[in-house]
Design brief:
single chain, 5 strands, alpha+beta, about 45% helix
Length: about 130
């Protein structure tokens, strides 16, 4: 129930900003009185997936989240190597560094999402 309320709140908040809240991860635990509490962030590009609403309505899925990075690791074969090592009980392979073009595109995705959610222009730290 709490997760549904969180997702509904996020969806309402971002809908007016041209976004669809597709889904996301919520981490919960019990406090000392056995009451459920949220124990991690949510509603960020790292935890949730957002879609560009106008592009979705035009039949195109544009994901604004870390899904872009996930797809890179799938396409590079890293995910297959990772799961093969886990299945074989071997140490996990080192995570390869992202190529500069993937880092740049990920930055563009995160900046775009920031600007859509906040309605403000992104200003890199140290610049005014």
């Amino acid at each position: 129930e709490i997760v549904l309320r969180i997702d509904e709140d996020i969806g309402r908040s971002v809908s007016s900003r041209g976004l669809i809240h597709a889904d996301g991860k919520k981490e919960l635990a019990f406090d000392e009185n056995r009451q459920i509490m949220v124990i991690d962030v949510y509603g960020t590009a790292d935890e949730d997936r957002f879609w560009d609403k106008a592009r979705y309505e035009a039949g195109e899925l544009v994901d604004l989240s870390k899904e872009y990075v996930r797809q890179h690791y799938r396409q590079s074969g890293y995910k297959d190597r990772l799961y093969a090592a886990r299945d074989a009980g071997q140490p996990e392979p080192a995570i390869p560094a992202l190529p500069p073009e993937v880092v740049a595109e990920t930055s563009r995705i995160y900046i775009r999402l920031f600007e859509m959610i906040t309605g403000e222009s992104f200003q890199p730290a140290g610049k005014s």
